[in-house]
Structure formats: C-alpha cells, structure tokens
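FORM 7B: Structural annotation worksheet

SECTION A. Query
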Amino acid sequence: MFLAATLALNLTPGPDMLYVITRGATEGRGAGVVSALGIATGCVVHTLAVALGVSGLLAAVPIAYDVLRYLGAAYLVYLGVRRLIGSAPAHAAAATQHTGLWRVYRQGVLTNVLNPKVALFFLAFLPQFVDRSAGGMSLALAALGTIFNVSGTIVNVLVALAASGAAQWTRRPALATWAGRVGGVVFVGLGLRLAWKR
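SECTION B. Predicted structure
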C-alpha cells in the first residue's frame, strides 16, 4: 500500500517536479539531473526531521511554519527575478555545465528544505504506515522516507532527462531568451504560490 501511494504521489506534478522541468528544459540535462539530486537531499533533511520529531514543531508552532514558508517563497522569487534580469540564457547552459552545477544543486536543496509544506507532508504521510506498537518508530519513519525519496528521485531524474530534450531548442538565442524568461516567471510563480497558500 505504501509503495502504491508513494508512486502515485511521486508521479503527480508538483512544485519540485516543476522546478526540475524548468531547470532541465532551460539549462540542459546536467542542470535538470543535479536539481533533482538537490531536491532529493532536501527530502533527506525532511525525512530526518520527521524521524527525529523536529517536523512536529512546524505543526505545533505556526510562527515557525510561516517564517520558513516566507523564507522559501522569498528564495524562489529571488531565483526567478535573477533569471528575468540576469545574463543571457543562451550562455547559461554552458556555464552551468562547467562551473554552476554545484550552485544548481544547492538551489535544489534550499528550494526543498525551505518549503514547510514538504515537511508537513512527510509528517502527515509517513506515520500512517508505521505500526506504533511495534517500537522503533524513528527507524521505520527513516526507512519509509528513504523509500519515498528514492522513488521520487528516480521520477524526477527521468523528468529532467525528458525535459532536457527541450533544451535543444533553447540553444537558439531568441528561444534561449524566451525560455530563460519563462523559467524566471515559473520560479516567481512558485514563490508567490508558496507565500499565498497555507
């Protein structure tokens, strides 16, 4: 039951998948895959937070949830604005391939970690599949979170590879500029969505 629910959830498009699609389509295969790995690392943080009981603080202390939510929203808007006013996207793919993959990875991690909805999702979803009477709840939560994350990472990497096919079109200067702007709008939209929706 857990595996079926996990696969269904991981195949459902959401902010993380949209982030990976945008990176893959506008910056190429490497950036798409690395952003998926960054998101996977963020999910490891959320899994550990649930297993150790830290995520419960977000549910119990609304101000902590709101602070994290607004930080995440501000970060996404910042990324989007940089894409809208930054350097020419035609050269972004090459720069990312050679020197910027670490930055893409870090941004993927931060995008996921600063989204309190992911933390609350893990907090609500994982415990449903744990037998509390069996003991070892933290270990069971960590194991389930790892399974969920591996499945999600496989899906996101495949999505990144598929989206990077569109990157071939963005190598033309006019299309590169357009794709970079669309990517910027997507990031700003994700940030505003995170800030607006509780």
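SECTION C. Observations
Residues 88-99 have pLDDT under 50 and may be disordered. The radius of gyration is 17 Å.

SECTION D. Sign-off
Analyst initials: ____
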